[in-house]
Structure formats: structure tokens, C-alpha cells
Amino acid sequence: MNIICGILILITVFLNFKHGYSMLKAKPEEVSLFAKWNLSKNMLNVLAWLTLAGGLLIIFPETFFAGNLINAGLILVIIGFHLKYKENKAAAMEIPFLLMPLLMIYILGIRRFNDFVIVSGAKDLSAFCTTTRGYRSRG
Length: 139
Fold this sequence. Notes:
The protein has helices spanning 2-24, 28-36, 41-59, 64-84, 88-120, 125-130. The radius of gyration is 18 Å and the shape is globular. Helix content is 80%, strand content 0%. The longest helix is centred in the last third of the chain and has 33 residues, at 88-120. By secondary structure, it is mainly alpha-helical. Helix 1 crosses helix 5. It has one domain (2-130).
């Protein structure tokens, strides 16, 4: 499970930095896609910085959930634009990229909950939800 999580994290961070950088540098393929959707250069920059922030937040365990949430939201926005402009095939191609952050949240959330149960001896989710970080360290 750790290997799968590690691979997904590396792929996600790489893709975020690659796409965020290409949007900031206004590479033609990125600009043409967003221009087709009537989005301004400023909006392209906002999306680029959000993409880079999402990739950076995934690296740190404390902000892992927030980074994946940003990624999932951005992908949903892109899927929404594809569907708005009747680009169903392109929207369908984005679905695996939407599943990646959701899968990482699910896998890591289950692992953290299991760690909490082992360390604290808790029997239900209520104790897990009342801790400050959702789990306690073993040290």
C-alpha cells in the first residue's frame, strides 16, 4: 500500500508542477485550451498558481488532504468546462485524473484511521474526529 501511495504522490506532484508551469509560461497548448473557453490570461494565472499550490501541499503530510482537495476541485472545473462546450470525450479523459486525488485521500485516510485505532484503542469514529490532527503519532 505504501508503494502505491508513493507512486500516486510522485505522479500527481509531477503532473501538477508540469501543468502549472506550462500555464504560467503560457505555452500555446494551454493558452489555446483556455482561450477556447473564453478564460482570460489572469484566470489562467490563477489556475496555474492553484495547480502549483496543490502539488506543493501534497508533499507535506499536514496539508496532504488540502492539496488533493484543490486538485480534485480543479479537475472538476476542467471537466465542467469540457461538458459546457460539448467536449464529452475530453471530459471522459479527465476522469482518471479526478480519481487519483480521491483515491489518495481514501487510502491515506483509511491508513491514518487504522493507525489511530491501534494507538488509542478507540472503538469508533467519534474519538478519531475529536483529535486535533485526526491521528496520534506513535512516539
